[in-house]
UniProtKB/TrEMBL annotation:
Belongs to the EF-1-beta/EF-1-delta family. Residues 79-118 are annotated as: Disordered. It comes from Ornithorhynchus anatinus (Duckbill platypus). EF-1 is composed of 4 subunits: alpha, beta (alpha subunit of the eEF1B subcomplex), delta (beta subunit of the eEF1B subcomplex), and gamma (gamma subunit of the eEF1B subcomplex). Interacts with elongation factor EEF1A1. This is Elongation factor 1-beta.
Length: 225
């Protein structure tokens, strides 16, 4: 697996195709996987590779806190589409198939009928795979502030209630308790939602329904991804 040379047009095209239905290289939140791939790209991808450009600009915004993102960096060849071999030497063997058959023909000798047939089959398979790519799903990353009634509220139970909310298109992320004064702490929790399926109004309604623990809910940050 791998993207190959991410400084080349071919590598960037593979990255763009890979991100057509994904927000991140791995998982649902920014991680060291994104940083590893980001650092292998020489600069912003061209405007026509809009999936890769969207991802590049989003990961660039985490530059100051990149060391604190979750996960462990792996060799570059460990990331990317499983059906593409890494030719950079970072984690995959050289492709024998590519050495045996020149997909673009040879200037030195006449292309055999068998080589032509294999080249056309591979190009047809690649075009078929591209045509079956699912449409891009619009997603947003939310940071929610959930406030308790007082300093005696069981915050572990409050978080348990919040995370018990399950819906198609909703994925809960990391959380922490943030002091707000007078011994009171609020729950700050991250989630990723599919815009067409989950809205902030729905989240607020369900979270504040736990009225024994929750006083209010606010959206502290809202980012399209």
């Amino acid at each position: 697996m791998g993207f190959g040379d991410l400084k080349s047009p071919t590598g960037l095209q593979l990255l763009n195709d890979f991100l057509a239905d994904k927000s991140y290289i791995e998982g649902y939140v920014p991680s060291q996987a994104d940083i590893a791939v980001f650092e292998a790209v020489s600069g912003p991808p061209p405007a026509d590779l809009y999936h890769a450009l969207r991802w590049y600009n989003h990961i660039k915004s985490f530059e100051k806190q990149k060391s604190s993102l979750p996960g462990v960096k792996k060799a570059l060849g460990k990331y990317g589409p499983a059906d593409v071999e890494d030719s950079t030497g970072s984690g995959a063997a050289d492709s024998k198939d590519d050495d045996d058959i020149d997909l673009f023909g040879s200037d030195d000798e006449e292309e055999s009928e068998e080589a032509k047939r294999l080249r056309e089959e591979r190009l047809a398979q690649y075009e078929s795979k591209k045509s079956k790519k699912p449409a891009l799903i619009a997603k947003s990353s939310l940071l929610l502030d959930v406030k308790p009634w007082d300093d005696e509220t069981d915050m572990a139970k409050l978080e348990e209630c919040v995370r018990s909310i399950q819906a198609d298109g909703l994925v809960w992320g990391s959380s922490k308790l943030v002091p707000v004064g007078y011994g009171i702490k609020k729950l700050q929790i991250q989630c990723v939602v599919e815009d067409d399926k989950v809205g902030t109004d729905m989240l607020e309604e369900q979270i504040t329904a736990f009225e024994d623990y929750v006083q209010s809910m606010d959206v502290a940050a809202f980012n399209k991804i």
